Amino acid sequence: MNVFLWIVQAVLAAMFAMSGLEKLLRLKDELAGRYPWTAMFSQTAVRAIGVTELLGTIGLIVPAAAGIAPVLTPIAATGLAIMMALAGAMHIRRKEPAGLKVTAVLLMLCVLVAWGRFGPYGWPS
Fold first, then answer.
1. Helices 97-118 and 72-93, packing angle to 10 deg
2. DSSP character for 69?
3. Counting C-beta atoms within 10 Å of the first and last residue's C-beta, which end of the chain has fewer, N or C?
4. CA 49 – CA 29 distance, rounded (Å)
């Protein structure tokens, strides 16, 4: 299970890193085709979401891999799960079922990592 959780963490980190970098480096008008919800937010808010995703990416991998404060890994997974729950609520409100599917999968994977790393497959402190 430890190996499986590492694989899930790596997949989540890759997904959130790509998404976060895209939101951080592109203008919100360029993102409108892929992320229609960006019309509701300012450029600063979109970039803040991107920064949060990148920080979550770092938190999913670095603390556990370095063995320094590995409790930060499930905390990062929990934070990303909260972000995905909020994103899911926004997709429901905007009636965007396609966005909701991806968000739900990411939410479930974040919850899995948080459960596993806080619980039976965590690291000794």
1. 160
2. S
3. C
4. 15
Euclidean distance between CA atoms 95 and 103, whole angstroms: 13
Paired tokens of 17: 């890193």
Regarding pTM above 0.85, the answer is yes
* pLDDT over threshold 70, residue 124: no
52 token code pair: 């949060």
Q: What is the CA radius of gyration of the chain?
A: 15
Q: For residue 109, which of 1, 5, 2, 33 has the smallest C-alpha distance?
A: 5
Q: Could you tell me the two tokens for 21? A: 């970098």
Look over the chain and give the mean of its residue pLDDT values, rounded to a whole number.
93
Residue owning tokens 């799960």: 81
Q: How many other C-beta atoms lie within 10 A of the C-beta of residue 72?
A: 18
d(CA 35, CA 32): 5
Count CB neighbours of 120 within 10 A.
Answer: 9
